[in-house]
């Protein structure tokens, strides 16, 4: 009985402290990722290089089976900047690049698909016309018709 109770106690303790350990590393990774992003942007680097550096750091710190998606990393950076507004006051202006206008991206993708479909439709019509022209040409005999022979 004592071993069963001690096992329950150990499992309960692990169950309580495990989430605390993992969320602390996640918060620290996001916070330092925000620091990397903001410092690089403030130093004059472009968005892409700053984002790549911060995202790489956050992915590396997370570890484990599941990887951090770009959306999650952007949310962590944004959360860190907003939470510690006094420290990152210079960085608020750079946050809009982390969350691009999703509707604009969807509209551009729809437009691109529509153009591809138009190109495919034109190609189908062209092939159809070529087949009809070939069929029509086969119906005529090989003899040449002279204009003035009557």
Helix content: over 70%
Distance between the termini: 119 Å
Q: Low-confidence parts, pLDDT < 50 over ≥5 residues?
A: 20-27
Mean pLDDT: 78
Question: How does the major sheet shape up?
Answer: none
Strand residues, percent: under 5%
How many domains in all?
2
The total strand number stands at 0
Q: Rough shape?
A: elongated
Rg calc:
32 Å
Contiguous helical run count: 4
What is the subunit arrangement here? single chain
H/E element order: HHHH
What structural class do you assign from the helix and strand content? mainly alpha
Using brief descriptors, characterize the structure shown.
mainly alpha; 150 residues
Describe the structure.
The protein is an all-alpha fold. The chain has 2 domains: 2-100, no CATH class; 101-141. It is built from 4 helices and no strands. It has helices at 2-42, 47-62, 70-83, 102-139. The longest helix has 41 residues, at 2-42. The radius of gyration is 32 Å and the shape is elongated.
